[in-house]
Every structure is written in structure tokens, then in C-alpha cells.
Amino acid sequence: MRFVLALALLPTSVFADGFDVLEDDTALTHEEVLNLTDGHVLSFYEGGKSRYSVGGAYSYSYQSGATAFGHFEVRPDGEVCVTFVNGRTRCDRFVRSHGRLVLLTQDGGRFPVRPR
């Protein structure tokens, strides 16, 4: 019961599709996500880089120099899902929030994207 009450008292968050979307977040459309990802590299403030290659190849380079490889697809709702070569999967959503582009993960992470 306390959990339900606590959720009711969170006016700034909306839970949709497993993502912790804030009230002022605006999800990118399918077309916007395609334009953002296909053939582009996105850099994050913690030092990581996501590479979305034409044809669906994906890699994430950590600041440490390690790289994870996989394949990505953009779903009709704009969600980006990655299947890594080790078999793990992850889906993300891009939103605009207070003038910034932010990558949301289903586990509640929020990662602002550096401007190009």
C-alpha cells in the first residue's frame, strides 16, 4: 500500500513503456530517431560513444576504451533496440527535455547527448 501511495505522489514522472519519462519530456518520432541514428555517432557526457551504422550495425565505446558490438533497429514507436553479440538486448528511447536530447533506458537511466 505504501508503494502505491508513493507512486501517486510522484507528479513529475510518467511511466510509459517501461521508461521513466518526465512530465516535460517529448519522445522523438520514428522518423526523427532514424535521422538521429542511421550512420551517426552520438557522444555522451560520461565519455561513451554510440555508433549507429547504416544497415543496423551498432557499437558502444566506453571511455575506458572497451567496445560492445551488436545490431540495432528502430521500432515504429521510435524505440531503439540493440541486440549485442553476447546475446544481451536493450531498448532505449530518445526524448527532448528542456532543450536537450536525452537517451532514456528502461532501467531508469537518463543520458544527455552531447551536441554535434
Structure summarized in a few sentences:
The chain has 116 residues and is mainly β. It contains two helices and eleven strands, in the order αβββαββββββββ.
Structure commentary:
This protein has 116 residues and is mostly beta strands. 13% of the residues lie in helices and 47% in strands. The protein has 2 helices and 11 strands; from the N terminus they run αβββαββββββββ. The strands form 2 sheets. Strands 3, 4, 5, 6, 7, 8, 9, 10 and 11 form a 9-stranded antiparallel beta sheet that branches. Strand 9 and strand 10 form a beta hairpin. The N terminus is likely disordered.
Secondary structure tally: strands? 11
Q: Residue share in helices?
A: 10-25%
Structural class: mainly beta
Share in β-strands: over 45%
Low-confidence stretches: 1-16
Give the mean pLDDT. 87
Form type: globular
**How would you sum up the major sheet?**
9 strands, antiparallel
Q: Radius of gyration, rounded?
A: 15 Å
Tally of alpha and pi helices: 2
Distance between the termini: 46 Å
H-E string:
HEEEHEEEEEEEE
Write the layout of secondary structure elements.
Elements: H1 2-8, E1 13-16, E2 19-22, E3 26-27, H2 30-37, E4 40-43, E5 49-52, E6 57-61, E7 67-74, E8 80-84, E9 89-97, E10 100-105, E11 110-112
Antiparallel strand pairs: 1-2, 3-9, 4-5, 5-6, 6-7, 7-8, 8-9, 9-10, 10-11
Key terms:
disordered N terminus; globular; two-stranded antiparallel ribbon; 11 strands; 116 residues; mainly beta
